[in-house]
Amino acid sequence: MTPHSAEFTDVIVVGGGAAGLGLAHRLTETGDATVTVIEPPDGPQRPPERTWCYWGEGVDGLEEVVDATWFFLRLHGADGRPVTVDPAPFTYRMVRSTDYERLVHGHLARSEGGRLLRATAEAVRDVPGGAEVRCTLPGGWSLTLRARRVFDSRPPRSLPPARTRLLQHFRGWFVRTDTARFDPAVADLMDFRVPQPAHGLAFGYVLPLTAHRALVEYTEFSAGRLTTEAYESALGRYCRDTLGLGAFTVERTEQGAIPMTDARFPRRAGSAVFRVGTAGGATRPATGYTFAAVQRQSRAVADWLRRPHGNAPAPHGRRALAMDAILLRALDTGRIDGPSFFTDLFRHVPAERVLRFLDGATSLREEWGIGLRTPVLPMLRTAVGLPFVPRRSEHATRNGEDHR
């Protein structure tokens, strides 16, 4: 390999997933800085096409890449009783990763200070006056880029020490049925009419695209992934026995795992190196949703870069993280029944308030009211004991970005 001389830009974004592209999108919109996005070249390092879902309100700048929208949300309790809610003013929205990439890559191409570099980032470190990223180009050449600030969105190789560590792991089928089986206006967020594991919880997830097509997933909150055969078996039973789809064709699959943990993710890796996305704590610990949080984080970072001081903005508030830590511990210890907890939450609290709560946008008074709708004594017992639970380190395999 022959090294190239160092090149300079204001901001380098490492990684082209939801977090990296989201930040690049916001920075190219403002035009306040030159931006270089480093994405892996075509090949095994690039993740397959995936979907990201979030709830949004009004116009958010992503209209041209929203592939589907649902106006109603539904949960099925383990007893089979459905809970259908209207989350207005929110709607539930799906974005395909390929469409989002096309949007942001187009912004970069049209921006005077934007650049997309296909290369493998080998090392990121502080240097006098900023930071540098050493890359390997597809032909084997090496290249060093320098910037005032580097934002690294690559998933962490291992998770920080935590008191509770679960995974939200799933496999999904994009199915086409022979007859109309789906209501395109209703998204099934959690369908607990599936066999529950001995530890954790499991549910179906159905996002209708048309009356004949839908993304159908089997999801677990538990300590470890299943085999592909086990996911496929669970999906087959769910489609056949629970949904009663009849004859259908699987057009495409997707699979992933999302960390659900109270680990403290450092948002700074150096004086001029910052972490965003899951590596920077954007994944909501109690739900695994990430896409909406990285959009908020991207806007906050873009604003912060105009007048930088202290650390980059946190994606979630301390109060929200504290409540998530209690819920995760209560689920992990079995003190609360997961299916009943989530179903009752939507059954007894207005959906709009639940979604604002999950976004960390509720007031202390609203959160107190939501807390009273949960199993109070088990949650209090968990809260009292949580400070005495030690944080333990555990090596985790690299987690790919997901659609939630």
TrEMBL record:
Q: Which Gene3D superfamilies did the record assign? A: FAD/NAD(P)-binding domain
Question: Per its record, how is this protein called by name?
Answer: Lycopene cyclase family protein
The organism named in the record is Streptomyces vinaceusdrappus
